[in-house]
Design a protein that fits this description.
Elements: E1 3-6, H1 13-22, H2 24-49, H3 61-66, E2 69-75, E3 80-87, E4 90-91, E5 95-99
Parallel strand pairs: 1-5
Antiparallel strand pairs: 2-3, 3-4, 3-5
């Protein structure tokens, strides 16, 4: 499987005003929500296309458990972690790496 890096989320002009109005917490929440949405889209596509058998209809906890699908999270270090979906030991999604940097 290929590795996907989610690095930079562009900040629009409207978001810069939120920094001054609501503080840095609002900006962090916007970035985290955008990251979660991208990861969800990737994982949903993997469940619908790569799982054996593919999940049709609503994705529920029961369907995921029945197919033996697990989410593996790995802390690589230096504020970096990776996520990947496995079905009975076989990877069904790309490796998603999330890098953060504090300066």
């Amino acid at each position: 499987m290929k590795e996907i890096e989610l690095k930079v989320i562009p900040i629009s002009h409207d978001m810069t005003f939120d920094i001054f109005d609501n503080g840095i917490g609002k900006l962090s929440q916007i970035i985290i929500n955008a990251y979660i949405k991208k990861v969800d889209d990737i994982f949903i596509a993997s469940l619908r296309n790569n799982a054996d058998p593919p999940i049709r209809g609503e994705i529920t906890k029961r369907k995921i458990r029945y197919r033996g699908i697990e989410l593996h999270k790995t802390d690589v270090g230096n504020f970096t972690f990776q996520q990947q979906l496995f079905q009975r030991g076989r990877p069904i999604s790309p490796v998603i790496s999330f890098y953060t940097e504090i300066k």
